[in-house]
Amino acid sequence: MVTLADTEAGGVRNGPRLGIETRSIDYVPEAERHGKVSTQGPFWFLGNFQFFTIAIGFIGPGMGLGLGATTLASVLGILFGTLFMAFHASQGPDLGLPQMIQSRAQFGYRGVIIPLLGTLFTFAGFNVVDTVLISQGLNHLFGWGIPIVVLALGVLAAVIAIFGHDWLHIIFRVLFWASLPLYLIISGAILLGHVVPSTTPHTSFGWVAFAAQFAACASYNITYAPYVSDYTRYLPRGRSRSALVWNVYIGASASAIWLTVLGAWLATYFGASDGMVATSTAGNAVFPHLGTLTVLVSVAALTATMGLNAYSGMLTLVTGLDCFADVPFSRGVRVAGVLALAALWLAVSLALNANAINALYDALSVMLYLLVPWTAVNLMDYFFVRKGHYAIRDFFSLTGIYGAWAWRGLLAYIIGFAASVPFFNLAGVYEGPIAHALGDVDISWAPGLLVAGVVYYLITRNLDLAAERPAIDASDKAFGINL
């Protein structure tokens, strides 16, 4: 169980720390809060600003969808999906905790292990796909050995995650300014007609392809939902909630829209099927070595994003272990967690020989299935049921007010997941009857969100929130929180 002394162990200094981060899943006291809301926009912008995102734009054209329809489906899907991740941002400064610790209020001290399995799969899965995309792309372009690239990526990402929160923000800021002008030049050259197409474009339309592109884009930023509070929890309490949500929303959606549409153009006019190769070809068509430079900077951005995944994965792993054992919130535990995850995703990446684009699409689908019911329950509880009022101290107590297994959240999660199963479409693995009837389109996110959220809201109508008030007041007093 966390104590007030634990929260002060990291010292009191308001400002970025350039050493290895001392915090883990514990509460960040106000004296250590730093940063600006305005930095969240560029941070989440870079999270999508690499050729991983470009590959999302290949899905519609690969199914015969024209550029205009692919663009429309992408924009609508991203704008919709980003709503859910952006609203999680306000939980960080309000509670000073990583995202998944707060989920103990909905699922219980030990019950949270169920959505934790889904989120841990997300972090590891993204790093596997990132590693495959980078290593295969660099091998194709420059002949670099895949095992060497895989190991180098793992080491760099792990080091970034070990140094932690403040270093992630610094690295993301530097890479944001390094990446922006390169993609501006390439995109501007395309708009001005200086990049000559190599294939004849098609203008066909199909609802199946449109829905597939929309679903992939909606899922892309929904899968960021378990991350967001991890990188806003050091912001000072009391900052404008709307400003924070808007910064995250605009940053994450703008870059995703930009590069997804760029990917759709490259797929339509270049017949591209590899994001890295397409970026190199388009950039070098503007002037020599621009594409090569853009690829290398994009590799750096995607490696930093792998560090982001490893950091949040470590927090998820520590949270899971803490459900069943007394885990110290120490640097040693953090480092061990990062190294364990790195070993896992590196082993899988070295063993994986599947086509990168297929792996990308399948991974996004599985992640979406697991995360959608959780985000629905979490946001419904935060904004409509408990309305941001929690006993932070009880998140770290098995005998606290949230209990070991919170049946309401678990039931809503299971029902929401079950409702989405008939809509699943995993090629070669399982196709639900409704997905088949819809022409193989997977829209499982829709019933998953709706059913889990509505069920949770209905079964919490009799929740005695007044009984939680004394514990909330005691917790606020212990942590020196003045609301």
Structure summarized in a few sentences:
The chain has 483 residues and is an all-alpha fold. The chain is 66% helix and 1% strand. The model is unreliable at 1-13 (pLDDT under 50).
Describe the structure.
The protein has a two-stranded antiparallel ribbon with strand order 1-2. The longest helix is centred in the middle third of the chain and has 33 residues, at 290-322. The protein has a domain at 28-356: Hydantoin permease (Orthogonal Bundle), CATH 1.10.4160. It has helices at residues 4-7, 40-47, 51-56, 59-62, 67-87, 91-95, 99-102, 104-107, 113-142, 146-163, 165-191, 207-222, 241-270, 275-286, 290-322, 331-351, 356-385, 407-420, 433-437, 445-459, 469-478, and strands at residues 425-426, 430-431. The chain has 21 helices and 2 strands. Mean pLDDT is 89; it is low at 1-13. 54% of the residues are buried. With 483 residues, the protein is mostly helical. α11 (165-191) runs antiparallel to α15 (290-322).
Short descriptors:
483 residues; mainly alpha; Hydantoin permease; 2 strands; disordered N terminus
What is the strand tally?
A: 2
- CATH topology name of the domain at 28-356: Hydantoin permease
Alpha plus pi helix count = 21
What is the averaged pLDDT score? 89
Based on secondary structure, the structural category is mainly alpha
Order of helices and strands: HHHHHHHHHHHHHHHHHHEEHHH
What is the CA-CA span between the terminal residues? 24 Å
> What overall geometry do the principal axes of the alpha carbons give?
globular
Largest sheet: 2 strands, antiparallel
Radius of gyration: 22 Å
CATH superfamily descriptor of the domain at 28-356: Hydantoin permease
Helix percent band: 55-70%
